[in-house]
Amino acid sequence: GDTVELASAKTGLPTGTLGQIVEAIGGEGSLSQFSNMIANDPKARGILDMLDRDGDGNPLNDIGNMAKGLFGKR
Hints:
Layout: H1 2-11, H2 15-24, H3 28-39, H4 45-51, H5 59-70
Helix pairs in contact: 1-2, 1-5
């Protein structure tokens, strides 16, 4: 959805590739659920901070950047 398109615009990765990543982790709704679960667990909060490198509250664009590096697009 919008998250995939935003991440694609920020990373330059195709929306299809990012869509596959999102589906592999349980769909776009799972990003919010995952984020909420981590945010509510002080011990796990560091994981969210690690994934959301730019601190915008959306880890998908940062995961996209990590994937971009794996695909040699940097």
